[in-house]
Amino acid sequence: MSVAPEPSATAYAPTARTVPTRSKERAGYDRALVHSILDGAYVCHLGFVRDGAPVVLPTLYGRVGERVYVHGSTGSRPLRMAGQQDPGLPVCLTVTHVDALVLARSAFHHSINYRSVVIHGIAHQVTDLDEKRLALDALVDHVVPGRAADSRPANAKELAATAVLSLDLAEVSAKLRTGGPNDEPEDLDLPHWTGLVPLRQSHGPLVPADDLADGIDVPAYLRDL
Amino acid sequence: MSVAPEPSATAYAPTARTVPTRSKERAGYDRALVHSILDGAYVCHLGFVRDGAPVVLPTLYGRVGERVYVHGSTGSRPLRMAGQQDPGLPVCLTVTHVDALVLARSAFHHSINYRSVVIHGIAHQVTDLDEKRLALDALVDHVVPGRAADSRPANAKELAATAVLSLDLAEVSAKLRTGGPNDEPEDLDLPHWTGLVPLRQSHGPLVPADDLADGIDVPAYLRDL
């Protein structure tokens, strides 16, 4: 079983690809910050190159230490490509939270407050069965923490039909904007309302499946969401 | 001024890139569906190829008819690349909504309900000033409809500092999953709770800027959000 790399410091080392050309003050490399952004979203956007052109697909993911996993059918394009290419598939995996709309007096200074993580690297197909099971548990627990232990694990047929890609957290950066609008001094007297529109994601009331048997209570990990 | 293409039918024509290899029943090409998914999200994920590797960045966007626009500093990488490359920059622009977590009895059938749009194409730098102004209005109105008319438009200096890319809606598909979990018949008696956890995005209370002058009321287009 391949083992995810141990963190050697509290921050990722910046590289040419992870230092932005502008708004450098918005970039961050702290591991705890990167982990918190990754752990708080449901989907990532996975980019890869196919026939010379970019492809960006939304997909579920999970994190185990310094490694993220995505999965899919063994027949899906990026998963097949990663298994066929040596040493793997160059990818860019991006996760974004939109926290607020930033309404400035000038159109130019309109913006959003956001937190994002961009991971560059080579995705490898996971062939070790133990790591594959660990990754699939992480994917389910990423959706709802505690859920993997309260569901039937994949059987041999399902494991064989599922491909898993791993991507190490090595070339990684966070980027975020916080705070209010930044208008030009000469615009401060303009008569436009200015400020933030915060955005919130919440869980609606649970919708039990039509065929849920009587007597199965909502588990604690769902009540606590 | 370049004019966005007129729609020739109520649906986009599928291409080799927009027909999925699996779950074909989840794919859609209806223009109204694609437009509604595009119009309801705040950020897209823009993919392009740099030095042979994929890059995926979150960014704001706006739609005018059958064309989407993104913008950025004239110094930012994809915007610079689109201006330097002939005939433009190959991109993939993806927008995703996560509507619900799907908790099946088996780990294998866990999923999410989502709506996404993937646009493949060549992004061009907008050089016509009228189209640039139209695009910037669309970007601001995409964040909050009605806002462009209630903010100071970009001046000549700001227009010169901003690059805008256009991407026609030609090679486009939507993909969506709806409905409850799909467990295997042999799993129906397992004792795990099963159903949907709906997700909702809402607006929190407005946060006026620290320097907002007295007497400027919250405009109607913000009260109605």
From TrEMBL, chains A, B:
InterPro entries associated with the record: Pyridox_Oxase-rel (IPR024747), Split_barrel_FMN-bd (IPR012349)
Region (Disordered): 1-25
Pfam name, any one: Pyridox_ox_2
SUPFAM superfamilies referenced in this protein's UniProt entry, alphabetically: FMN-binding split barrel
Name the UniProt record assigns to this protein: Pyridoxamine 5'-phosphate oxidase family protein
Organism: Streptomyces kunmingensis
